Amino acid sequence: MRYLFEPGLLASDPVRIALLIGAVVAVTSGVIGVFTVIRAQSFAGHSLADVATTGGAGAFLAGLNQFWGFLAAGAAAALLMEGIGVQRRRGRDVATGVVLGGALGLAALFLYLGTLKTAATGASFTILFGSIFVVSPGTVPAIVAAGAVALLTTAALSRVLLLSAISPDIAASRGVNVRLVGIVYLVALAVDVSLSAVAIGAVLSTALLIGPAATALRVAKSPGRAMAVAAVTGLAATWLGIVLAYDSYYWPPYGHGWPVSFFVVALVLVGYLLSYARKPRRLVPRSPHEGAECSPA
Amino acid sequence: MKTVTRSALLELSDISVRLGGRQVLGDVSFTIGKGEFAGIIGPNGAGKTTLLRLILGLVEPSTGHILLDGEPRQKTRKGGTSIGYVPQKLLIDPDMPLRARDVVSLGLDGHRLGFGFPSRQRRELVDQTLHDVGADGYADTRVGELSGGEQQRVLIGHALISRPSLLLLDEPLANLDLRSEQEIVALLGKLATEQEIAVLLSAHDMNPLMTVMDRIIYVANGKVATGPTDEVVTSEGLSRLYGHHVDVIRLHNRVLVVAGE
Q: What is the CATH number of the domain that holds B231?
C-alpha cells in the first residue's frame, strides 16, 4: 500500500482538487458517453473537442481561464453543428474535416502568440494535454456546477434519449421534440467535453467520454447499469491515474512527474481491452429456450 | 369474414398529401372501427408508409381531416399514447444496452422527462405485457441479440403497454421467416379480438393476413380502395385503381395480383 500511495498524497491541496475534479469529470463523462455511443455521435464529441481546443488557446492568449474558453467554444460549436446538421450526416465529413482543421490551425496560432507574450512554455502542453494538478482553486466551484448541470440534464433526458435511439419516429409520434432534445443533449456533451479538456486536455478529452462508455456497453445489459459501469470505470481510471502520476515523481527522470493524462488514457484503454476478456457475446439470434436459461430465476 | 358493425375509432375524410410538390395520396377516405383488423396492402412506393405517418401525425395532410375517437388528430397528438406504433425495419444494434423489458417499459413513459423509478406495479405491468406478446422467454436478453420475429414481439409489447386503442405497424412481416410471420399474425389477430385494439398494418402481400383481416385498404397509384377483401380485390376494381389492367388470380386460397397485357 505504501508503494501505491506515496506519503503525503492526500495532504497536498492540488491532489485533493485533482481528485475532486477528476471525480466530477469521470462520472459526468461516463453517463453522457453512454448516450454518445448509443446515438453514434462519437464523431460529434471529437469535433467539439477540436473546437474547444481553439477556445482554450484563445482564452490563454487573452489571459483568461482556459475553462471558460473551452466552455464557450464548445457550446458555440454544438449549436453551430446542430444548425448545419453535421453531427450525423456522413456526406458532410469532408466539409467538417476542413473546418476542424482550420479550428486546430487557429489554436496553433493562438498558442504560439500566447507563448511569445507570456514566455510560459508549459501552457501549450496544459491546454492540449491537461492540467488537473494546476486547476486554479477559483474555478473549482464553476467546474463542479457545470458538471452537475450537464449530468442532471442528461439524466432527465435519459428516457427520451433512449426512445429516440430506438426510433425517432416513435418518439416524435408521442409528442417528443426530437430535434430540441438533440440540441440540448449536444450542449450537455459540449459542457462535458470542456470539463474533460481541463482534466486530461482538449486533445484527449474524448477518451474519458468514449472509452468507459464503450467498455460499459460491452458488459452491462440495461441502460442504468451501463451508466453506472461507465461512471465507475471512468472514476477508477481517473483516480488511479492521478495516484500514479503523483507517484511518478520518483520515477525516471527523477523529479519530473509523468502527465496524468497519459495514465488516465492508458487505464481507460486497459479497461476496454479487459472487457474483451469476458466471454464474447453471441451475435447469432438466441432461441427463446436459451434466453430463458440466462434470465434470473 | 366478420360483418359486425363497430363504432368508428379512426376516420379519414378526403385526405390528400403532397410531399415535395408531388401528390403522394389523393381522395383517401375510410373508417376503422374499434377492435377492427385492417391491412394496408399495395406495391412498394404506393404510399403505405405515408398513410401510416399521416395517421401518426408525422405528416400533415394538404386537404381533408382525420378524426381519432371523434377528436381531430392534431389535438390527440401531444404526448399521445392513444396510438401504438411499430416502425418499419427497425434495426436495433447489439450494442444497445436495452433488454426486452427495457424496451417494453419505455412504451409506458419513454416520452417523458425526468427519472423513471422502478416500482412493483410497473414491473408487474411490464411482465404482463411481455407475457401477452409471448416474449417472457427473453425478457432479460438484449433486444439487439434477438431474432427478427422476437424483436417484432418486443416492439409490439412496447406499443401495447400504454393501452392504445389503435396499433399501427409498418410492414411488420417483412424479413420474417414463414413461421415467425404466422406467429406474429396470430398474435395481432388475438390482440384485436381479445383486447379490442384496432390493428392497422401495412404489407406488400395480403395472403398471410387473409384469416384475420376484417378490411383491406388497397393502395396503388396514390389512391385507395377499401372494404372487405372479396369486394376490393377483383380484377375490375384493382385495374381501375392501378390505371391499367391487372389480373386477380385465386389459387389454393392464395390471391395473386398480376399485371396484365
A: 3.40.50.300
